[in-house]
Specification:
The protein is of the alpha+beta class. The protein has 3 domains: 230 residues, Rossmann fold; 74 residues, Uridine Diphospho-n-acetylenolpyruvylglucosamine Reductase, domain 3 (2-Layer Sandwich), CATH 3.30.465.60; 134 residues, no CATH class. It contains 14 helices and 21 strands. The chain has a 6-stranded mixed sheet with strand order 3-2-1-4-6-5, with helices on both faces. Helix 7 crosses helix 11. The radius of gyration is 31 Å and the shape is elongated. The relative contact order is 0.08. The mean pLDDT is 86.
Length: 475
Amino acid sequence: MNQWEFEERVCRFMKEKNMVSPGDGVLVGVSGGADSVALLRLLWNVRQRLAIEVRCVHVEHGIRGEESLRDQRFVEALCEELGIVETSYAAGEQITRERPAHISLEEQARNVRYDYLLREAKAWEAQRSGRVVVALAHHSGDNAETVLFHLVRGTGLDGMRGIPVCRDRIIRPFLRTERQEIECYLAELQQPFCQDSTNADLSYDRNGIRHQVLPLLTGINSRAVPHIAQTAELLGEVADYINDEAERLLAEARGAGELHGAPLQGAPSFLLREVIHLWLSEYVSGARDISAVHINGIAALFASQPGHQCRLPEGWTVWRTYDGVAIGKTAQEKPMVPAAVTVTAEQLQPATGICVSYGNVRICFQVHSFEDKQQIPRNAYTKWFDYDKIKSNIQIRPRQSGDYLCVTSSGGHQRLQDYFVNQKVPAHLRDSIPLLCDDDHVIWVVGYRISEYYKVTQDTTRVLEVQILEEKEHE
């Protein structure tokens, strides 16, 4: 493929993906390496064909010492030779000064580089009539490398799409181009470029994929890299569709620090996982550290009992609530504990019943007669109890010392504290779990189990029906 054919093919790809429009400004991020130098040369050569204006930005990271300064001088000289407006930024101090503890130096350098590029693009756009996009030189090999990296690390569908062709004002004209084609293009132009010595360091995971895994796959099939990249592009289209559906579901299920389960009932597992991933990204700044293990763990919480939890990076925890899952920092303040509420026998009139508020839930009580053929509810938040076995006024309250429940049909008791420990209920949640109590005998650990002693049997004549509702259902 000669120079003209290569440039024409890249231009067709740019038009297919609507990367630029006539009159646009294109700001090319150039490191001095082969890929970015080739992209700068190509866009400069086709600028009249596409009716675009081209400029260049170089960000000097200060990580590789003299080699890094060499790259900056090279880019500046190249742009001066071609007559391209170029801006260089020295970002080393900012990278080291502002790097969060959980982010690697390389990732922080990438974040700062994008920040400079986008800032420069907006500043240039304010000076001209048309929009400005940022062109980056990722190619099909980079895309395949990214897909494999995400795959072995554990990811959702969005991670399998690899590098997006376009996102916001970022465009990637080389994403269907192989590295070998780029090198041939540079050779035909007789264009030199800089070599980054860190690209050969196999201690970096991505370099291991680039220099060891991808060559092995190419040995199996010479078209392995473009095949992976093509699949990533197709998965990207699928991911966009699923993401739209996930956004819609998330809007229905989102609460204050909580993801409600009702709107998600019946959703396919893959869609539920995407909703969870979108929800987590609103809280966890290091969302790229969230893996499939975390997503699957949270999805499993919806089928578990309240209090079960999943630990996440950066000290976050997700735990099961009565109507979904909630998220918070692991070291949490002790929750507010509602005051006890008492329901007397006089209040439990068979015809009307009574509803009381406890914290953020509404609890409704009603007494009615029981017949053998009646179906006992299996709903997690509607329970029947043998009313005649309740000896005192009913209390809805938090736990107290001495609380117990009957755990066997023969009358075996278990301390509530031991029950919480066995069920792995987080300590910081135990005081917030409502208890339905007959003195210190726990009738029902709401959201968990009921005492065997109060279960309805064939000898039951009167049933106490208790239903737990969200407070908002009565607003």
